[in-house]
Design goal:
With 485 residues, this protein is an all-alpha fold. The chain has helices at 2-32, 38-60, 67-87, 91-117, 128-144, 152-161, 168-196, 211-231, 237-260, 263-280, 286-315, 319-322, 329-346, 358-365, 369-378, 401-433, 440-455, 463-471, 473-476. It contains 19 helices and no strands.
Amino acid sequence: MEKETKNILCNRIEKVILFILLFIMNIGIGKGAEVTYQTFRDFYNYGAIACFFLVLLLIRKAKVWRPLPVIISVVYITLSFLYFYKWNFEAELFRAMFAKCISIWFFLLLLIDLIVAKKIVKWKERNIFLTVLFLSAIVLSVIISPQRKTLIYVIFPFVIFYFVRISLDKWKELMLYFSTSMWLSVTALFVKSLIAVPYTGERYLGTFLNISTAGALASCGVVCAFYWLLLLRGKDKKTNILRIFSVIALIISLCFLFMVNTRTSEVAVVMMFLFGVMFWGGGHESRVIKRRILTWSITFIGICLVFILGLWGVYHLDIENMKDYISNETIYNNLKYWIGTAKYTFGTKDSYFGEGTILSMLDSFTSGRIAIWAGYLQDLNWFGHPDFYCLVNNWDLPHNTYIGWLFQYGIIGGLPFVVWFIGVVIFLLKKSYRGDFKYLFAFLWIVYAGFAMGGEYVPWIYPLCFFTLIIQYPVLVHITAENND
């Protein structure tokens, strides 16, 4: 009885530690995308990666006190101490290098545990096609691309992650803690920003680096809260209370997204809601799902038509004449924003695609993105480019992650990444059609990320891509109840 009580206590402590590590990891990835200098980014990014390795060590219950890990740890710590003593880094660089050294240490401990314990994911337990495609994309890009250094955040944490065996129950628990810690980290970052820079009714940037990353962070919270709503089943009192909390969390995250007001993130969230309801909004009989898909597709088309008509109607308004009639600053600023968007969309006289064409209007509505995409696509080559550049509008980023992969890593290296991502989407669509709940969060995330990355270029270490590499675990690895360590 005493032993059982001790095991229960240890299990609860483990869960608390797991949650705290995931929270710190999410904070680190979020803040790493929101700082200017590389030394600060390295500190947050490598700190987050170190927490990620600790999570994996905890999941595996790695025996780091064995003789071999202890010896290697002593040697590594000694060499690290001598390294820092020799170079005597200044404070900012010291923090970044210290976080990097810690993450490498945890990586070594995890690698040793995998080699010694030999409880790893075997080849037969993998999705062969997507695994080979993903590895091919990495290997080809590393060999031929001048931007191979950008793949360090793919190779370093994830070359080992997909070897860690995770049971079905542990994965479901991990996704619940992961989504909860993500929502809390996003909320904490926004609350901190609002305290420093209060919301005035205009598009909110606050303390964030740019409007796109702020919108992406807010959207992460929306995905998590919507995941809880779809995950909750039953009519008991406890489920209803949790559902109420999920709705409140969803409203809070939507408010953050509304304040930032980025069209890319808003469209991605709408599509996530649409696909989530179509595939997970009820029973999973084939006939029922087909009917839901048809109903919601027609509804979505209708909403799009109403939006276009509304934008056309707003185009004819004069915001200056309305200032005396709208006392609420928030409503006025948002109306001003959409009137400006409408005038920019329908009133353009000079465009990359010519005057009065559908493409020119779409290009104007997307703030010139389609012209930028066209410019980047014209400059694609086989082996990639050393840096981003585009003569169209003098913008330096492709504002599309898939085009960014093709441009960075060339057609040879970038195309496998694009095909890999499409393969992950197709796989999750099939699994969602069958109602397998272990893929629910991955499905919602990949739909949101898929559309968001279509409107913005997202580096691998940013939340959208980094977390995509985490949630694709059940896509690359066949998780079963028997996959216990």
